[in-house]
Amino acid sequence: MSKDTLTQEVSEKGFALVVVIVIMLLVSFLASQLILNVRTELQVAFNSKARSTGLALAGAGVNLGIFRLLDKPLHYINEEYESFHEGYEYSDFLPSGQVTYTVISESGKMDLNKMNEALLKIFLEYMEVEFDDQSIILDSLNDWRDSDDLHRLNGAEQEYYQQLDDPYIPRNGRIQDPAEFFLIHGTDKLAKKFKASDAFTVHNKSRKINFNSLTPFMLDFLVEGDGEKKTAYRDAKQELGTLNAGQARIVLGDERFERCASFLTYSSANNRYYTILTQGKPGTSEEKENQENQDEEAISQDEPAMAVSVLLQLKGRAVNYLSWQEGWS
């Protein structure tokens, strides 16, 4: 065999080897992409199922809250659920997972249309808003609600809002949604610190806060973030149900109570507007929950839950839904 023929055979074999290697790499790449696509599809299907299950559980929590408000008996509720208290978190396990729900009267929030300015100042202090900025928010809130175009000393009217990068028109009337609070001049400093609906409402005409029906955020505000006081409030609600001024003093402490006493009430005053906060945690059983409570590492890796917040109005035995918000918590 000549030298040229041998060189040609070696070259052809080398080329064939390169082709085989390229084909193997291509096959491996396609196989890995197929596996990745399958895994992605499985994860999407799992997430979709978990979301649907969590949403169904959260919806069950809404119905449980409504049934408790209407005082309809539920055959699977045990003795510890016989008494029902606003502002207290209840939990139950269904075959598909855990559901928790809290029923809160809108009387436990600050009304943006019937705002007590002294109370709002205390709230802004708690949120660490500077004194000058407090005046801007207070004046701008009043300008937002009034029908004229004359702004107060530190306020803002249509001219100010029209000069913004994304201009809009102020309400110039009764506020319709608590979320409007963050459209008001000066409130940008509070953006993303809390949800407007956790602190504000447009359905509380009493100008006071119902101490017996607080959102977690309003409780945090009243006790100034004190964990022990929050626990004391929840324990008192569980044991006593309806708290009075004396019990509020014990929970808040003398100094805080004296400052807030004139803004507190202890009944819903026939307010028929309620927020129901629910969470649905799919795949959680009572045994699993008890095990996680004994395992701090498991708690830190807790599974997400589907959360639903519903605002509704009771008209006799009828229920009028005003808003429904949902998402992973």
Summarize the structure.
The chain is an alpha/beta fold and 329 residues long.
Considering the chains and any ligands shown, give keywords for the structure.
5-stranded antiparallel beta sheet; alpha/beta; extended; 11 helices
Question: What do these coordinates show?
Answer:
The chain contains 11 helices and 9 strands. With 329 residues, it is of the alpha/beta class. The longest helix has 67 residues. About 2% of the residues have low confidence.
Mean pLDDT: 87
- Computed CA radius of gyration, to the nearest angstrom: 29 Å
What is the 3D form? extended
Proportion of β residues? Answer: 15-25%
Q: What structural class should be given to the helix and strand makeup?
A: alpha/beta
Order of strands in the sheet with most strands: 1-2-7-8-9
**Number of distinct helices:** 11
What's the helix-strand series? HEEEHHHHEEHHHHEEHHEE
Low-confidence stretches: 297-301
Number of domains: 1
Distance between the first and last residues' Cα: 77 Å
**Number of β-strand runs:** 9
Please bin the fraction of helical residues.
Answer: 40-55%
Largest sheet: 5 strands, antiparallel
